[in-house]
Design goal:
Elements: H1 3-6, H2 12-24, H3 26-30, H4 42-48, H5 57-72, E1 78-82, H6 88-99, E2 106-110, H7 124-129, H8 139-148, E3 156-160, H9 163-166, E4 175-180, H10 185-195, E5 199-207, H11 214-226, E6 235-236, E7 242-245
Parallel strand pairs: 1-2, 1-4, 2-3, 4-5
Antiparallel strand pairs: 5-7, 6-7
Length: 247
């Protein structure tokens, strides 16, 4: 059994491990952690683990701060997330806008059938870890997570299916926050190609898996490099993950 299978939140062991990790990370988040200290909704974030998210508490906190900064600077546009699972990260993003009195439309893209198989660009080590059913999410749970923070259901748009099926017809309008949590090379590249052009100047591109999975790194570096943006344009979210403020 691979490590991801042992940590799968569908298993009691995986749920317990995620919950324990989140509580152990509370001091780092309260003290500022990897980002300048700023108030974060700690109770809300803890409430999302493990039912709605597998993301670490420092990354959730950094995600909230990035969205709050975008909203505070008045960048117009929607919140778009590619790779949703059960909606925890999306709820944190939406909550940042709601806390500021500036609610945004939220567009969520996920197969809700698990991750697609990795390709050669993701490397042999990833292929050895992969198993069918990795990160199977639930669209209903994602909607519940958004509703729990006060997001208007009418402003929550869920696109269920593989990215290549749902991206072409989606109409998000301008984007203020683009969160990509898609792990592998091909889905990350698809998300960047489809939605980065809609990200508004001053908007935030959040890459949950940058620095964690080689395919995500490669897709990001290739795409941004084609725009003349080197790795220096990215700054870390926490131990993994990256954010770029669009020039």
């Amino acid at each position: 059994m691979t490590r991801p299978q042992l940590r799968d939140p569908d298993r009691a062991l995986g749920r317990a491990a995620l919950r324990a990790r989140a509580w152990a990370q509370v001091p780092a988040v309260v003290l500022g952690g990897w980002q300048p200290a700023r108030r974060v909704p700690l109770r809300r974030m803890l409430g999302m683990v493990p039912r709605h998210t597998m993301v670490s508490l420092p990354v959730l906190a950094a995600t909230h701060r990035a969205a709050a900064d975008v909203v505070a600077r008045g960048v117009a546009g929607a919140i778009v997330e590619c790779g949703v699972w059960n909606g925890g990260s999306a709820a944190i993003l939406a909550g940042a806008a709601l806390d500021a009195g500036d609610p945004r439309p939220v567009h969520l893209f996920d197969s809700f059938a698990g991750l697609p198989p990795p390709t050669a660009e993701d490397g042999a080590a990833v292929a050895r870890q992969f198993f069918d059913g990795w990160c199977v999410g639930d669209a209903a749970e994602a909607r519940r997570a958004l509703a729990a923070v006060g997001q208007d259901p009418a402003a929550t748009h869920v696109y269920e299916g593989w990215f290549e099926e749902t991206f072409p017809e989606a109409e998000t309008g301008p984007i203020a926050v683009l969160h990509i949590d898609a792990d592998w090379y091909e889905p990350v590249r698809l998300a960047l190609e489809r939605f980065y052009p809609l990200l508004q100047p001053g908007g935030a591109l959040l890459l949950n898996d940058y620095g964690r999975w080689p395919g995500c790194d490669r897709a990001t570096d290739e795409y941004l490099g084609g725009l003349g943006l080197g790795p220096g344009a990215l700054r870390p979210l926490a131990r993994t993950g990256a954010v770029l403020i669009k020039p």
